[in-house]
């Protein structure tokens, strides 16, 4: 009730009610408040905050720091995805975008299977070949990594179609402006790995890799058909 009722609707709604510049203090994406990870030191986390259909989700994909060293358990465990070289945490090149794209599908698999992300590739306790063996053993299927990646991709694209119908576009795939300002204090004082133009370029690359429209951020009809989700094309275009 009252003040508590306003806060219960989330910080974005509360800021719009209170006004007075409160919106400038918001740290949210699509109405979802950010977790503790600062994307100015982990750029891939920033990209996944922006493109996640659920808002600022720190487990929409894997974290940058898990793939910075060739001998790291996470890097070794994800070798079947074809990532052959470590990528610095503050990098935002094509390699980083590809890392986020591939691991977003991987994390989607975990969601579909009910696997805890802390026990999977990120910690090396459940390498991908073992996960496939477990799925086949539990179900009697004869599945493989390709098939499971497509399952993860279907789930992500269905969520994006849902968002499209709800009126969300590329404008909602963004970061709070505060993350494009330099850090203050500590050993990284005055630095930031995020630059607006470079971040927009990374968004373009992500959309192109995932088969999404550069303007709307929605999956293309061709991508939906490729995933055997052609029945969603009408719903996907309903947001136009």
CATH top-level class of the largest domain: Mainly Alpha
Shape: globular
Class per helix and strand makeup? mainly alpha
Q: How would a textbook summarize the main sheet?
A: 2 strands, antiparallel
- The number of domains is 2
The CATH architecture designation of the largest domain is Orthogonal Bundle
Helix content: 40-55%
Task: Give the arrangement of secondary structure elements.
Blueprint: H1 2-7, H2 11-18, E1 28-29, E2 32-33, H3 43-51, H4 73-77, H5 94-113, H6 128-139, H7 145-165, H8 196-210, H9 221-226, H10 233-237
Antiparallel strand pairs: 1-2
Helix pairs in contact: 3-5, 5-7, 5-8
Walk me through what this model shows:
The protein is mainly alpha-helical and 240 residues long. The chain folds into two domains: 1-33, no CATH class; 35-237, Aldehyde Ferredoxin Oxidoreductase Protein, subunit A, domain 3 (Orthogonal Bundle). 45% of the residues lie in helices and 2% in strands. The chain has ten helices and two strands. The chain has helices at 2-7, 11-18, 43-51, 73-77, 94-113, 128-139, 145-165, 196-210, 221-226, 233-237, and strands at residues 28-29, 32-33. It has a two-stranded antiparallel sheet. Helix 5 crosses helix 7 and helix 5 crosses helix 8 (196-210).
Features of the shown structure:
240 residues, mainly alpha, Aldehyde Ferredoxin Oxidoreductase Protein, subunit A, domain 3, 2 domains, two-stranded antiparallel ribbon, 2 strands
Short account of what is shown:
The chain has 240 residues and is mainly α. The chain has helices at 2-7, 11-18, 43-51, 73-77, 94-113, 128-139, 145-165, 196-210, 221-226, 233-237; strands at 28-29, 32-33. Helix 5 crosses helix 8.
